[in-house]
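Model: Ready when you are.
Researcher: Fold this.
Model:
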Amino acid sequence: MPEIAPRLRDDVETLWNYHQLHHELRPADVGIGLGSHDLGVATCAAELYHRKLFPLIVFTGANAPTTVERFPRGEAVHYREHALALGVPDDVILIETEARNTGENITLTQKLLAHHDIRDAILITRPYQQRRAYATARKLWPEIDIRCASKPMPLDEYVNEIGDVERVITMLVGDTQRIRVYAERGFAVPQDVPPQVENAYERLVDAGYTSRLVH
């Protein structure tokens, strides 16, 4: 089982907790699963569908360098296949196969659903993508109510499922940087970054977890 080094644990947990919004879920018009390397997004979407939290699912995503090997037919396609295996009916799943970043996940899904009456949505993401996805959706699709969800699990269980400590930490660091940078660039609404989060981020950058930073 991969383990987080003790000297890093507090800072990694600080970022992990910051990015999860703990929204109280209520029924919505659609569940939107954002593509990534994490098949748990599709698992969570299927579970929420079976709980009758939405009647329609959109899976959105082409490929990124981190997903092309795992999902060669595209993120949305593989998510759909996984949801079907979990008992979700084919006729309630739409797929969007062109998006290559979170902004495109939102705008292309919005276009796909243009002829549906969408007033609220549940965004389903990796646990540490919730805050960034929410900030992006509030900027690009402000007219609907957005709540976020992820497959619930503690940090160590997630690291074990992904099987790569460095990937999880670098993604956490990258998403933390994007909260501020993307707001400054007009891609997302601003989010508060508490001092303890900023300090944890800086220490992990200093420790070398920089491969997912934007320049």
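Researcher: Now this one.
Model:
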Amino acid sequence: MTAVETRPHVGELLRTWRQRRRLSQLDLASDAGVSSRHLSFVETGRARPSREMLLHLAEQLDVPMRARNELLLAAGFAPVFGRRGLDHPDMAAVRAALDLVLVAYEPYPAVVIDRSWNLVSGNGSVALLTQGVAPDLLAPPANVLRLSLHPDGLAPRILNLPEWRRHVLHRLAREAQLTGDAELAALHRELAALPGGTDRTPPNGIAVPLRVRAGDRVLSFLSTVTTFGTAVDLTAAELSIEAFLPADAGTAEALRRPA
């Protein structure tokens, strides 16, 4: 006898996302401008939502595009968000935009990462951060968070490692919770188990710097993230650019100085 795999009911998925956002049925119904009774019927399977209603509720819940496709499939509708590889001809403009931004950040390190924090691309200055990293950590798909916290990666050169670990792990835990992504949750468990300690003192300042030893110099960076705000393709929507900008004048001068 063969086991049949069943999809979760669309109402169950909606309820999970509502609870993940810590909203009551009344809260969501009010935000979405629908009847709380109808929403209750949808969640329990007594009513079948229309495609438009489902997308509207997903918008109110800030459900990621990938999960919106899953909601549509669970309700018997076709997905609306496509996914093309970066090498697809239709993605030429995206590739050009990524390359343009990476070059613009020179001489400061910048990387393109996917939704799992895997390295997609980087500019020439990334070598400043990958010096001495074990080759196996750089083998595709290289995960930039693992690179930064692993004892065979950047971690031994990070002068404020406990503080940086707290920042990275908090950020990753929040993303895993907000997206419901099991892969991110597994990555968080893996990285939390690595040595290096975690700073328990309250954060001080407006942002957490990354302070790295580079030869006889100490470089201090602040990270910024850029995303495609109007993307309707899964690949583009799940890409982001993280740039490491100088946090002090000494770092800026050191990086602008010709090698």
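Researcher: Key takeaway?
Model: Strands lie at 110-113, 119-122, 210-214, 217-227, 240-246.
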